[in-house]
Write a structure and sequence with these properties.
This protein is mostly helical. The chain has 2 domains: about 10-45; about 55-90, no CATH class. It has helices at about 10-15, 25-45, 55-70, 80-90.
Length: about 100
């Protein structure tokens, strides 16, 4: 657990719930909202499907790819380039 400090517009929160008349009540309400949000986010996060049938298959594929790189059959690209390409792919498939 960690403790964070945030600044909120008390008037806006009271428009949502007029019963929130003290900082303590607002703090409890906000804690509840964060807990609900974290539960919802946890429920929606899914593991990507695994395309390999076994750990041995993963190791064999990694060894095959490494051999391709070492032999010059495949080339590597910098991490920054991988991230740029992934970002472009995500942006092109958004909405």
């Amino acid at each position: 657990m960690c403790t964070v400090s945030i600044t909120v517009n008390e008037a806006a929160i009271r428009r949502i719930n007029p019963k929130l008349t003290s900082k303590e009540a607002i703090g409890l309400w906000l804690q509840h909202q964060v807990d609900v949000m974290l539960d919802e986010l946890t429920d929606t996060v899914e593991e990507p499907p695994c395309v390999y049938k076994s750990k041995e298959e993963v190791i064999a594929e990694a060894q095959r790819r490494m051999a391709e790189i070492e032999s010059g059959e495949a080339k590597t690209i910098p991490h920054e380039e991988v991230m740029r390409r992934l970002e472009n792919m995500l942006n092109s498939h958004a909405d």
